[in-house]
Specification:
It is built from ten helices and five strands; from the N terminus they run βαβαβαααβαααβαα. By secondary structure, it is of the alpha/beta class. The radius of gyration is 17 Å and the shape is globular.
Length: 197
């Protein structure tokens, strides 16, 4: 599946600038948020701010930035469904072919000594898992990447073939659901512990 547009929004920025550079060199348009966008922009790589896509600013201390039909419609649209394609045209939604997201560091936050419940709660990612799950669900058309160790392999595929194979997208989908499952397990276990305390 050809990749024309990618959304990059990562907490762990390992390798993201180099990956963004390779995507840009392959002709992929990049959308990004906050700190990820800043890192990409500072490296001189063209990047579009997610607010320019949604027409809406990041609000509530960044709690709400990607939870928007221009993002989720772009990720979830079934590209060979005429009704979905028609809705994209009607609402001026551009497809997002790749989602590169890793989540707020909840596990690292709760490992700190004397971390408050409020600080832990602020490190529960909402938009990230929503984008990951949307992209993973739509793996027939969308490549989802949660692991920086995959960047080089994917960049090579895009440079050589313009996109990713069906099998790789399904593998990445499985990895993504595993990632969000472990993330949610960590959160529920933390909250269960607080209730016992």
């Amino acid at each position: 599946m050809k990749i024309k547009r990618a959304l990059l929004s990562v907490s762990d920025k390992t390798g993201i600038v180099d990956f963004a550079r390779k995507l840009n060199e392959a002709g992929v348009e990049i959308i990004s948020t906050g700190g990820t966008m800043k890192a990409i922009k500072e490296a001189g790589i063209p990047v579009m701010y997610v607010s320019d896509v949604t027409g809406f600013p990041e609000i509530m201390d960044g709690r709400v930035k990607t939870l928007n039909p221009y993002i989720h419609g772009g990720i979830l649209a079934v590209r060979d469904n005429e009704e979905h394609v028609k809705a994209m045209h009607e609402h001026k939604i551009t497809g997002i072919d790749m989602v590169v997201v890793n989540l707020y560091p909840f596990r690292q936050t709760i490992a700190k000594p004397n971390v408050s419940l409020a600080e832990a709660v602020e490190n529960i990612d909402i938009g990230g898992p929503a984008m990951i799950r949307a992209a993973a669900k739509n793996f027939k058309f969308v490549t989802v990447v949660v692991n920086p160790d995959r960047y080089n392999e994917i960049a090579v595929d895009i440079a050589q073939n313009g996109g990713t194979t069906d099998k790789l997208r399904m593998q990445l989908s499985q990895e993504a659901f595993n990632h969000t499952a472990k993330y949610d397990e960590c959160i529920q276990a933390y909250l269960a512990k607080q209730l016992q305390g």
